[in-house]
Amino acid sequence: MRQISGQNLVVETAADTFTPTPWVTALASDTALQNVYGEFYRGVNTAMFTSLPYFLHSTGFKNPTDLNNGNWQFQKPNGNNFFQDLAVSPEIASDFHCAMQCHSKYNLTPWTEVYPTSTIVEAGIANAKSGRPLVVDVGGSKGHDLEKFRLCHPDVPDGSLVLQDLPDVVQDVKVDKAISVQAYDFFTPQPESARGARVYFMHNVLHDWTDKLVAKILGNVVGAMEKGYSRLLIHESLVSRVKPLARVTVSDITMMACLSSKERTENEWTHLVEEAGLKVVKIWRPPHSIESVIEAELV
Questions:
Q1: CA 165 to chain centre
Q2: 160-219: per-residue pLDDT in tens?
Q3: b/e string for 135-166 if b means 16 or more Cβ within 10 A?
Q4: Fewest C-beta in 10 Å: which of 38, 192, 195, 257?
């Protein structure tokens, strides 16, 4: 107890008397948070960061750019990439989605506080009532971002918010009636039912992939958008040119270690968006937020 008190995990209130900090209370009560700081750190973060210097030494310290030939394969020589291992390992997959949930819950300013979501409802509610989607969350995991939107706008029509992710991710998910669950692979064209939405939303999806694969993902979104109406919102960390935040640069190294990918600068994001046939309308980047929202529309 004295040791963890020195680490600010508990507070000593009197001789041999301690009280937990809010962090420890959350760690003890939130199963998802326990999974992140247990098996996920042991099996993924610690393993990848331990092997990364040796992998980089073996390549002459070149930035890896191949999802199938990176530090993940160097440390786990079964030939699979990160996402292939998620597909065959329920334990890793469960911990990964816990990590995404906790990242959204504890680390970030909610996207509904970064982007003016009232404009989505104002412009799209009539179409939503007629059956067109209001928001399509592409690669949305268990739906935590759509739930944030629903809480801000509780009167949106049933089924007007669409949660998309792989079948294994969404098969048992429990969501509010405002959210429609759709099994979907974002490397394929958007289904007809998800076309012409007011907003296509992607949170921490594209930073997992190299530029070539990002172009393919964006191409499928672009193919579903309606010119003059649809918007793409990319919710990601941006690497500042001067004095980038440590939490962003740590994420940048994590992307390198696990996925041969990276966090991107504003110029890099703008280039990817424009190459896909879109233009950046605005980057919503409040100073208190780790992540920004890049708003884009069809050219």
A1: 12
A2: 999 999 998 898 899 999 999 999 999 999 999 999 999 999 999 999 999 999 999 999
A3: bbbbbbbbbbbbbbbbeebeebbebbbbbbbb
A4: 192
Phi/psi at 190 (5° precision) = -65, 140
Tokens encoding 151: 């809480």
Out of 203, 207, 235, 288, the active site residue is: 207
Q: What is the pLDDT of residue 288?
A: 65
Q: pTM of the entire structure?
A: 0.88
The pLDDT, as a whole number, for residue 21 is 92
Tracing tokens 């579903």 back to the chain, one arrives at 224
Cα-based angle 264, 270, 273 (whole degrees, multiple of 5): 105
Taking the C-alpha atoms of residue 247 and residue 259, their distance in angstroms, rounded to an integer, is 18
Structure tokens at 58: 């073996």
Q: Is the pLDDT of residue 279 over 90?
A: yes
